[in-house]
């Protein structure tokens, strides 16, 4: 893995929100020997990467209607030495998987502290990967929740799906062609296996798990 060993570091900040862009630049400016360039869209970002030999590009995942990961995909075709850090406002399993697949070097939440952003930059410059600690927690919780969901029988999962729609026991029984008493038994088993107390928690739990996928 190549590391950046030059005295002056060129960093490109790509964000379609001027205030957010200026905030990131302000954080980075405390670092010595850093040259910061800014832009707000994919086309300009790729042009800058090509013309300026950018060492690290820090990119907002959502650039208005554009996809920040496109900068990474196309940028790698232009410059093999540029490192890429993605900024995002929330954790999305699908976006994280996409980022990993295309070889993103860093992934940071916008709520990160200034020192975390600087640490991420320094890590990437040294040729290491950096992922926000919240993402590690996210994957841990996802694995735990997935394990619990997998304890449910096929029929219990079917009942769970109907619960998430806000259906009553009677409606669930009608949809699944089972008795109301059977529905109640399945819900009781679901509560026990997921360590929950009432049906409202079950629905919220399942929706949270769904967002993790």
Descriptive account of the structure:
The chain is α/β, with parallel strands linked by helices and 213 residues long. It has two domains: 9-134, Response regulator (Rossmann fold), CATH 3.40.50; 143-212, Arc Repressor Mutant, subunit A (Orthogonal Bundle). 56% of the residues lie in helices and 15% in strands. It contains ten helices and eight strands. The strands form two sheets. Strands 2-1-3-6-7-8 form a six-stranded parallel sheet, sandwiched between helices. Strand 4 and strand 5 form a beta hairpin. Helix 2 runs parallel beside helix 3, helix 7 (154-164) crosses helix 10 and helix 8 packs across helix 9. The protein is elongated and about 70 Å long.
Would you give the CATH topology of the largest domain? Rossmann fold
The CATH architecture of the largest domain can be given as 3-Layer(aba) Sandwich
Beta content comes to 15-25%
The biggest sheet, with number of strands, parallel, antiparallel or mixed sense and barrel status, is: 6 strands, parallel
Number of strands: 8
The quaternary structure here is single chain
Q: Quick check: average pLDDT?
A: 84
What is the CATH C level class of the largest domain, in words? Alpha Beta
Q: Give unreliable regions as ranges.
A: none
End-to-end Cα distance, whole Å, is 31 Å
SSE succession: EHEHEEEHEHEHEHHHHH
CATH superfamily of the largest domain: Response regulator
Proportion of helical residues: 55-70%
Strand adjacency order, main sheet: 2-1-3-6-7-8
What gross morphology would you assign?
Answer: elongated
Number of helices: 10
Structural class: alpha/beta
| Computed CA radius of gyration, to the nearest angstrom | 23 Å
What is the number of independent domains? 2
């Amino acid at each position: 893995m190549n590391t950046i060993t030059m005295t002056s570091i060129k960093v490109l900040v790509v964000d379609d929100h001027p205030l957010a862009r200026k905030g990131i630049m302000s954080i980075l400016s405390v670092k010595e020997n850093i040259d910061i360039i800014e832009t707000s869209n994919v086309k300009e970002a790729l042009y800058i990467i090509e013309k300026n030999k950018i060492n690290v590009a820090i990119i907002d995942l959502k650039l208005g209607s554009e996809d920040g990961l496109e900068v990474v995909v196309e940028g790698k075709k232009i410059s093999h030495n540029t490192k890429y850090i993605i900024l995002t406002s929330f954790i999305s399993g699908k976006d994280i998987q996409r980022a990993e697949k295309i070889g993103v070097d860093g992934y940071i939440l916008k709520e990160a502290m200034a020192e975390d952003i600087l640490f991420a930059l320094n890590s990437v410059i040294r040729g290491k990967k950096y992922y926000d600690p919240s993402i590690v927690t996210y994957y841990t919780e996802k694995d735990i929740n997935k394990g619990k969901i997998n304890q449910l029988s096929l029929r219990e999962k079917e009942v769970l799906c109907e619960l998430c729609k806000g259906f009553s026991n009677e409606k669930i029984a009608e949809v699944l062609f089972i008795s109301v008493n059977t529905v109640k038994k399945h819900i009781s088993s679901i509560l026990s296996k997921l360590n929950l107390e009432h049906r409202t928690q079950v629905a919220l739990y399942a929706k949270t798990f769904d967002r993790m996928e």
